[in-house]
Write the C-alpha cells for this entry.
Amino acid sequence: MNGQNIKKRAENIWYYHKWKLGTALCIAVLGFCLANDLRERQDSDYTVFMITSRPYGADSRGLLETFLADYGEDTDGDGRVAVAIRSVVIEDGASGGGTGFSYEDRVQLMKWVTEIKESSSVLYILDENTREVVEEYYGDFFSEVTGFSQCGAFASCDVLEEEAKSGLYMAARSFETMEGMDIEEYGQSMKLMENLKDNRISDGT
C-alpha cells in the first residue's frame, strides 16, 4: 500500500468516524486531566492554570513559579513552598464559530474546555482572549478577576516583560464550580491571591 492510499484511507476513517474519535479524545483528555491533577496536587502546594493565547516558555513559567512561591505558604508541611503552573495555549479566535472554524478546530477547543472544567486549580492566569473563551462556555466561572497591573506584587515582578504583564489577569475560580473541593484548601489559594494583590510576601509557614 503506497503513501497516497494510506492517506486516503485515513481521511475516510476520519470522515466517517470523526464524532466517535472526537468523543474518545475527550474521554482520554478527562482521564489525563484527573491523573495529572492528582500528581500536581501531591507534589506542589499550589497549582496555577495558565491559559493564554500565546505560548510562554518553560523558563518563563519556572521563574514565575518561583516568584509566586514567595507569596504562598507551606500547606503540606514538607518544609518548602512549591507552585506548579500548568499551561494551555488557546489560539486567538478559537471561541468563534465562523466559516473558517473547522471540525478539527472544534475538537481541539472541546479538549481545551474539558481540561479547564475538570481541573482542580483555584487560581488561573489569563489574557483577555482566553478569559472570554472560558466565560463563554462556563459563565460565572470566576469569582474574582484582577489585572496584573492591579496586583501590587507584579509591579516589582521582572519575570515577564511589561507589555506581557499589561494584558494578563490573575483569576480565582468560583467555589460553587468545584465539586469536592475542600473549603480549607480553597481558602489557602485565595490567601495567595490576596497576598499578590497586597504585595505581601509570606514567611512560608
The two ends are 64 Å apart (CA to CA). The chain is about 50% helix and 15% strand. Strands lie at 46-52, 83-89, 123-127, 142-147, 168-173.
